[in-house]
C-alpha cells in the first residue's frame, strides 16, 4: 500500500533483505573455505566487499524493521525519511551501490559464469531495494507535509554538498588513481601509481631556470672537451668524464663569469654523453640536472626542490625503480587502490628525509649495473642550511656509480672550498679569456662600431683584460660603449669611455646608475624597488606556479598606476592597460636596459595577454647590488606615493576586478594568496615607516652610488620638518588605502566564487541519483553555496563548512595585525562571536598550502586580549592540543630545508607563542598525539626544543614543573584522604 505517493514498508521487503543478508554470509563462508578457486589478493578483496555489503544490508534491515513496528502508515514513512535517518539512509545506499559494483568487478574477472548467475540474483535483490529506497529519499522534495526540510540545518546540507564538490576538484593525480578502478590489469595499476608518484615529485618551475640560461656565444666553451688543456686552474674535464673513478667535479668562479652558461653547455652537449661512455661501460646510464635560482620560488632554491627535480628526472628514466625508491608511499597507494572501501586521497608534500632516503635507495639499487650522472648548478643560490646541501653533494658523489658536476661562487663561500678542495676543479675566470674576447669582438661588430678590424681587435683585448674574467662586465661595457652615437675619432672616444669605466661589477653598476639622466632616475628607482619587493615576496609565497621568478609586464603596469584607478567602478579597462603596457615596455628598454630586461614567454604578436611579457633583473648580480641600496633608491622616490608592497597589492586586486571569468578556483586562490603576502609586507612597512636598515643607511651616507651633491639635493630637496610631515601624511594615506584594498579583494573573490558556480548566466544545476531515478536541483545547491564565504572553498584542501571560515580567518593566518585591529575597532566582539572554528586556531594552525612562517606573536596576543582562549573546544579538541599536533607536522616539513639560524628563529617564535598560550589558560599537562603516540607536552618540548634555550623556554619549563608538582600534591592529598577513610 502507498499513501499520497509515499512508500509503505511491506513484510515481504524485510524478508528479501533478510535473504540478501543470508546470501552475503553464505558467500563469505564459501570464499573463506576456498570455493570458486579464488585465491590471494582477489580472495581478500572479495571477502572485504561482501562483509561491508552485509553490514550495510544489516543496518538497512534494522531501520526497516523499526519502521515496520511503528504505529500507522504516516509514522512509518516519517521514520524512514526523518531528518535523523536521512543521512544514514543516503550513506547506506551509497555503500550498497559502491560495494555491489566492486563485487561485480572482482567476480567478472575472477569467478566462473556459474557464480555470475548467482551474482545476478543478488543484483536483482539490491536493485529492488535501492529503487524503493531511492523513492523514499526522493520523498523529501515531493512530500513537504511529511518532511519539512526548512528545519534541517542549512550548514548540514551544504556540508554534504561541499564534500561532494571536494571530490570533483581533486588533483589530476588523484583523479587518475580513481580511474584505475575501470581497469583491473595489474600492470596498468602499477603504471598509474608510478605516474602519480612522478606527478607528486614534479613542480611547475622544475626545469625553468636551466631552460632560461643563455646559450653559449658562437664556439665559446668548446675547450671544456679539449683533451690536452690542463693547468693549475683547470683539471681536465674530458679526462674526468672518461676515467673509471667516480666523484665530484667543481666548477667555481666569480659572479658573472659564465658558470651557468658553461653548465648548460655541458648538460646539452652530445660530447658529454660521448666521453662518459668509457666510464659507463656496459652499465645502464641515467642523467639529471637542476639549476638552483635565488630569484625563483621557494622550491627553486631549496633542498626539497633539488631532490624532487633530480628524483623526478632519474625515475622518469627508470620507472621500475619507483616502488623501491618510495616503497612506503607506493605500497600505501597500492593498498588504497586495491581496497574499494578506501579513498586514495592525496599525499602530503614530500619530506626532505624521505627524498634523501629515496635518492640513496636509487643510487644503491643496482650497484655497478646502473651509472648516474648528475649536474647541479648554482649551489651558492641555495637558501637553507648550506652545510646540509654540501654534505648531501659529498654523500651522493661518494658512491662508486655516480659522477656529479657542481658549480658555485668561491669568494664568500669558504664552506665550498673546504668541502671540495680535494676534487677536480675549474677556476672559470682564469681560463675564459678567449671566450670573452670572441664575444666582445662579435658584439662590437654587430653593434656597428665603424672602426677597422685591427683596431676592433685591440679594443676587444683591452675590454677583455679589464673584465678580469667577468662575462657580464664585458657585456655591460660593450653595450655602454656603442649605445651613444659618436663622431670624430671613434677609437679615441671609445678608449676614453672604457677608461672611465670602473673595475668590478660594484663600481660599474654604481656608475651606470649615476649616468642615468636626472629626470629618469625617479622612474628607474621606482621600477627597481618594485622588482626587489616582488623577488622578496617570492621567498614567502609557497606556490608551485610558473613564472614566480619574474613579474608580468601587466602586473608591473598596474603596480605603477595611480591608486585611484583600482577604486574606480569599473576600474581601468583591459584596453587601457594594454596601451600602458606598450608604453612601459619601451620605457624599460630605453631607461633601464642595463639593469632590467623584458622577456617574451609566448609567441609573437602585439596582444600583451598572448605574448606574456615578463620583467626581471638582467642578472643575479643586479639583484645583489641593489638589495643593499634600497635606502638610496628610496631617496629618489620620496616625493612620490610609492609603497612597493602596496603597489603590488593594488596590482593583484586590479587584476581580479577586471578578470571576466576565472579559469579555475586554483587561479583565483593564487591571486588571493599573493595579495595576502603583499599585505603582510605592507603591514611591516607601515609598522616601521620611519625606520631604515642601518646597513642601507650607511651605504647611502658614504655615497655608495657615488652621487654628486646636485644629485643629493635633487633626491632630497626638502627640509627635515617638511619631510617628517610628508611621510606622516603618506603613512596615513597608505594605511587607509590598505584597508580599502583588502575590502576590494574580499568582494572581488566573492564575485568570482559565485561565477564558478554558474554556467554562463545561470546557476549550475546538479543532478542527483535516487535509486534508479535522477532529479535536478534547479540550481538550488549552487545558490546556497554562493552565499557561503569564498574562503571555505580551497581548491585542494577540504575545509568543513562547519568551520565557517571568513576573511578574518585568512588574515590572521598571514599575520595581518593591522587589519585585525581594524576589525576589532569596528566590532570589539568579532573574535569571540565567530561561530565554528575559533579565530585563534587559524592563526596557530594555518592551512597546509599557506606559508607557515607568517605566524605573528602580536596577532596571537591581540586575539588573546580580545577573548580568544586556547582551551576552547571545537569538534572534540581544544585549540591548544590541535596546535601542538600541527606543530609536529610543521617541524617535520621544514627540517633540513632551512639554515641553523633560521631554525633557531622559528623555534624561538614558537616558544614565545607557547608561553603566551600557557599564561592565558593552556593546560601545561596536556597530552597530544606525536607520531601515533600519546605524549605529554613535556615530551613534546624535549623532542623539538631540547637544543634551544632562552627565557621563554625557561618560563615554559617553570610552568610545566609547577603544574606537575601541583598535580602530584593533589594526588597525595587524595590518596591520604582515601587512606583516612579506610
UniProtKB/TrEMBL annotation:
Keywords: Repeat. It comes from the Eukaryota. Residues 220-409 form the Nephrocystin 3-like N-terminal domain. Residues 704-730 are annotated as: Disordered. Residues 522-665 form the DUF7791 domain. This is NACHT domain-containing protein. It comes from Xylaria bambusicola. The lineage of its organism: Eukaryota, Fungi, Dikarya, Ascomycota, Pezizomycotina.
